């Protein structure tokens, strides 16, 4: 259709003199293509590029730009998007004028050109291709800038984000403790060290949290906020650099040994059973990579059994650093040696020689020092980061001696009541290393590797707690720390920012160079060719038909105007139908998402990190950008055709045909359209104005915010409570389990308050909770990722609690006390009737010896707890029953008897006596519980203790056994939940069982005088029942917790499953995608208006098929051919015009106002004219009232007349 190739060539012979001559005759140049305008844009691009680069550096350096509020996030997205939208709109004038005038300027500057070229009729890809082919670099440049600016507008939506972040602010921190490296008395060290061992058992055996100030590897100074006098919280964490205790143990194994002569002396109390040996050990030891020989010369008293005479040497000794240390041992700190051997005498009976069966030993060095570490405390789980500074301070303490003093003796170990206590390595390393020792008993199992592992295991588990209990001392001082608080900070997306900065700087450089090189080619036009009058003046000066086109081409161009049925792409009915339907879809989508946002506290969960925020900022902006682009394109098409449409409908003055809607911006377009009654342009321009900021509004329509609104969920129970099933014949294993569990709990129960330890999981005080499954929290949009420390759950959980029912029992014939006295040693016997399993009536006798009172006190106290007859071992002992039935032990209730009073030495009787019977059974109670998410599971929040609802208490169903706290074998304590030091019943206060001793000072809060005060019965019973309930909860946690589907001995698993637990979940780090209602309403109103406008256009177009026409809507179909803005088509339209006769001479050089004045009264009209001189018809824009050039009618009028004649014929 176009003869493009022959006009593409650029005339390189055109020199600067030719251009300057054109400049002298040119009176007009496009406003937006002037060098000053392009220079302004260049400066703006450069400024924005530099500013964005600076913002990126500031944000990266300072971890944010500035502190702000979350509600201002809209401003920081709306502002840049609005600014760039305005900048893009202004640049669109540059692009439009470049596309419109480039073909005309190329003729003036570059000689041969393509008169068929019309960039305004091309799509953007075609513009870029054609401009490059024709070397119209300004067109290519402005089009590329347009694309880049549109991309910048979309990117600007995600440029800034307001996100929560952790910042620090200085705070005064009060240190509570420090570490003392001076040596204390051995007795005091031993007591503190044993506390450390018990704590280690609780931490590693029961999974309780260590006390504040202790981690798995270090101990550090404790502290609080000096202002609030409290530790940090999850919302305001404390960050402090404090002193920490570091330790390191290195060991080398035994390489060889030599045994010297070992004479020894026997001593035996019973020569038929055992021999007491005072054994002198004399052995030389050599260790790997150690040049020195270490002699070991020790005396030990050992007991072994005749006939199976295997004894065991255990030697631990410490050395000062040797001047010639072993090469692979640390030169700092003390060394210690651990030696263990099994031996037997030669022959049978008494002998003076022994044979060593096995030897194992390690030589170790222990180094302890103070160094700095950073602690971030949230009140629950502090984070500790060692700093490993170079200014470490060594601690001169013999840690290994302290460690050995912490290991309990045989009274604290697990003891099998069915077997004699063996001489084993258990006694050496204690329960903390039992898993390593298991299966390695005897001479064959003792190896260097085993000893090495046991030493390191003990050291690793005990060192931090030893430092905590032994080296820590009260020492208050103030230091400067930091408080970590969550604030909202303005961040810039680094990738987006740098991309935008690079694009702006590239635009500035390209535009600067282009402006300098091509600025002189701009002022080359005689008049504005976008107006009809400008085209007439231009056509008068240059006749394209005579110089650029053949007569056949000219006739073809004329026929295009006559036979045209073309309609611009964006104004086609199908395009507007698709657009209108798409608008309806967008409106429905926004309404649905708004309802979701308001009804569900946000649309969905969104991640906080990464570039996900670009999804809900850029995608809505992109969709609105498409809408705005289409509306703008429609407006441009309507305005481009407006002048021709008005000329086809009514005559216009010279002033009216000297303006063009295409070159207008802003309010002027609306005013001129209103004055000229260009209703289509007016309505479309208003629509364009209203849609102009849709892209900006869409960028702030969606935002992510912290959502603390509670969400209701239902949680599943992962355990229930019953009696574990044991196979017949495993009674011994069952009792060993009971003993082992009570031993494990003894450390926790006896020292929990002193050591600031937490309760084991799923327990709190006297409350026993089921295990809660938190998988449902990931459903119902609660959260997508479980985040430790940020999830709070409030739930009403059915917990188990041991319920007491106590009755005072006065002495009677059934319940009585005997007091036997012999040389100031008194024995109290309590007899209580009971019935054996075979029906025999017996009296259960409890004997409590009261040793001679110290200091010859005349009165002392007596307090005892009698084991329940329900206990299987005691029942069988008292009743003489040999067959064990586990079912006899599992009862739903437990009866304990308590006796306390004051003994008078003078009268050899009780001055005050109380006997109580307490029956215990499990009750169900609803507990309002706060849970937190930690390490993948829900745990009770110790900072917010559970709140029982006592009104909800009812018997537990199905019932399960109430456990024994103290187990006795042969009327003596085999194992108790109370630690060994509380079981030492004799003291200055008289005889007192452990459960009572824990109540009084220094272990408890009560004075000892309560045991002879009649008014204190209630308080004593309250403390007793509290301790029993706490201990029972801990025992049941180990022995009666059953998994889902596991049957109890007394009842099967509930066939309907366990009831769900209603909970309210709050995620303190939960971010939800919200839709702004106000912005959405504005967007919906704008889209609705645009939808109505385009629906109205479609209705009017449809009505035309039925002959109904409206003057309000312009009929664009057939008004102009495709590419009508090209010089060739416009020349073809004006070729036969009579306007040249009415244009004053030299009109090209006249100012517009003067030209309009001289042409006052001249009226223009587009349509069919008859030239009277030759009676030929011409379709053109002509001047009316010319006798030789008569206006016959518009194209539509002539077509209607033709149809009327055809119908008449």
UniProtKB/TrEMBL annotation:
Under the heading InterPro entries, the entry gives:
DUF3433
What's the protein called, per UniProt? Uncharacterized protein
Keyword flag Transmembrane helix: yes
The family database entries (PANTHER family) matched by this protein are listed as: PHOSPHORIBOSYLAMINOIMIDAZOLE-SUCCINOCARBOXAMIDE SYNTHASE, SPRAY-RELATED
Q: Which of UniProt's keywords are assigned here?
A: Membrane, Transmembrane, Transmembrane helix
Source species: Colletotrichum asianum
- Show the stretches that span the lipid bilayer: 36-58, 137-160, 498-517, 578-596, 611-631, 678-702, 1078-1100
Give yes or no: UniProt keyword Glycoprotein: no
Signal peptide boundaries: none
